[in-house]
Every structure is written in C-alpha cells, then in structure tokens.
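Mods, move this if it's the wrong board.
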Amino acid sequence: MKTRKEFDSIGGINVPNDKYWGASTQRSMKFFNIGKINVPTSIIRSIAIIKRSAAIVHKKDKLISHKVASAIIKASNEVISNKLKENFPLKVWQTGSGTQTNMNINEVIANRAIEILKGKKGN
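Not the wrong board. Structure tokens:
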C-alpha cells in the first residue's frame, strides 16, 4: 500500500494514498479503533451539508474565492451523495465530542477540493 505523509499538531503520520482523509483520521483509527459500529452515514451527510452551506455563505460574502468555494461545494456534494463513503472509517466510540468525526469530514472535503483544484492531497 502506497502512503503519503500528512501532518497535524502532533506531527507526521502515513496515510493511504488512495484515501482522502488526513492525519487526524489516521490517528483516530489507530487510537480509537473500538468496537464495530462506524459513524452513521446520516451524521456524515448532515455535517457535509453544514460544510457546503458555510462555503455557499462565505462565497456570497466574498470571504473565500469563488474558485475555492466551488471546489468545497463540489466535494461536499460528493460526500452528501455517498460517492466518497469509503473515506469515513471511524468508529462511534471516540473521545465523546465528535472531534474526530468532524476532522474526518474536514479532511475528506479539503483533500477532495484540493484535487478538484488540480492540487496534491495533503497540501
């Protein structure tokens, strides 16, 4: 399996090249691989709707560029439509606040948006 190095506040960690998640998700999989129940798709889709809505508002208010907002909206729509469902591997038993789930969704949307903009995952 080929990997890429992603970084967060703790440092670098290897992430599978074929996945859109990043360092936070990889660490959560390592340290909170508890049980068999994954985060429900309905929660993932709901959070992606919020992320898409934020991008729409920020684009309208010219807080982010049209190009970046459009990529975020497109990536969010792919999450909402379950096109990227294999990128959400986390279990429901985390630290209790849902931070890992939120970061997983952020990482997937961000890395997919980067790819849409012809960039390289992890940048």
